[in-house]
Amino acid sequence: MKYVVILGDGMAGYPLPERENRTCLQLAETPFLDELAPKSTLGLAKTVPTGYAPGSDVANLSVMGYDPAQFYTGRSPLEAASIGIPLTDSDVTYRCNLVTLSEESPYENKRMLDYSAGEITTAEARELIAALGQEFSKPPFALYAGISYRHCLVLHEKRTGSILTPPHDITDLPIAPYLPKGTMDETLLAMMRRSWEILNDHPVNRARRAAGKRPANSAWFWGEGTKPRLKPFSALYGKRGAVISAVDLVKGIGILAGMDVIEVTGATGNWDTDFAGKANAAADALLNGHDFVYVHMEAPDECGHHGDIDKKIYSIEQVDGVARRISARLRAAGEQFAMLVMPDHPTPIALRTHTADPVPFLIYRSGEERGNGAARYDESCAEKTGLILPRACELMHAFLR
């Protein structure tokens, strides 16, 4: 028996008044998932426990079967694992976004124009992180380059208690109310101010402006955390697992859970990713020794953050295609399989950030086609089944049985 999770990050959302009060999931053409729905168990699952911020970190841990109350120590250390940063028990980590801020002075008067600096390329970002590192990578700090706009700052002294805001939560808003507070506020804010001075006129940003692109003109720190300790997935569930994702967060969870991380050429973490490549990599893994594969697609979430309805719909339709391709290859090989399809959290277009609302899930078993009353896969049909799981971290046990 093979098991595959199809995770469409941020795929769920709210009804859109400008689109006949339908959600992006309802607007998307998803013929394969709609074909599966009457043969599957559908319901809603709460992936973000009460008291936690609705982030992809907590939500993906829950979907992967790890109780955040037991295993969550912050977002950035999960990403640090993917980057390959060795952490000690006394280290504190922070996500470092390269962002686009407006031009007002002083720094506190600026606005958050783009949390991703126009989806800056990894090559460009590495040049900018290297420039910052000349000043920031000095004891007790170390700055590490990641992918695109996502990077990591490590403090080699255990001083937690900072109050930091994800930049994707404050798009188009003044930054003043959301600047660092708490334990490391003065130090982190000073570094952010200095990053503006280093980056705003950097050659990479001059070239980006000349090309009509947004400059990555500031660092933004958030996601404080300490070294995590996840139990191996194989020990918890008795399955040899693999993760396929373009983002450091999910790769890091996979690494810390002892799973194989499968790289896919052309995986970008956005709507232009190689969806077919991810599907084929997942099928290859399942047909060559892995029992379980977690296929994470970031695209719907990124499109939700940017308020792009059409690209979010397109991304959801590609998720449907990934599910179809994997299913077809497993059937052609004569493999029995179970498939879990769900988002980690909603990213409603109107809000352009995450919410903690329960998300729709679908569990299909090829040898046991039995539904619970859903006509198609979307938020409304899942809710109408009446099945609501208050703790999504328990869903993996039910899925793997």
Written description of the protein model:
Helix 5 (76-83) packs across helix 10 (248-256), helix 11 (275-287) runs parallel beside helix 13 (309-332) and helix 12 (299-305) packs antiparallel against helix 13 (309-332). Helix content is 34%, strand content 19%. It has helices at residues 24-27, 31-36, 56-63, 68-71, 76-83, 122-136, 185-199, 203-210, 233-237, 248-256, 275-287, 299-305, 309-332, 379-384, 395-400, and strands at 2-8, 41-45, 92-101, 112-114, 141-147, 150-155, 162-163, 181-182, 218-226, 241-244, 260-261, 292-297, 337-342, 359-365, 388-389. With 401 residues, it is an alpha/beta fold. The chain folds into two domains: 2-72 and 230-400, Alkaline Phosphatase, subunit A (3-Layer(aba) Sandwich), CATH 3.40.720.10; 91-226, no CATH class. The chain is built from 15 helices and 15 strands.
Descriptors for this entry?
5-stranded antiparallel sheet; globular; alpha/beta; 2 domains; 8-stranded mixed sheet; 401 residues; Alkaline Phosphatase, subunit A; 15 strands
Number of strands: 15
Number of domains: 2
Distance linking N and C termini: 11 Å
Strand adjacency order, main sheet: 11-10-12-1-13-14-2-15
User: SSE order, as H and E?
Assistant: EHHEHHHEEHEEEEHHEHEHEHEHHEEHEH
Outline the fold blueprint.
Layout: E1 2-8, H1 24-27, H2 31-36, E2 41-45, H3 56-63, H4 68-71, H5 76-83, E3 92-101, E4 112-114, H6 122-136, E5 141-147, E6 150-155, E7 162-163, E8 181-182, H7 185-199, H8 203-210, E9 218-226, H9 233-237, E10 241-244, H10 248-256, E11 260-261, H11 275-287, E12 292-297, H12 299-305, H13 309-332, E13 337-342, E14 359-365, H14 379-384, E15 388-389, H15 395-400
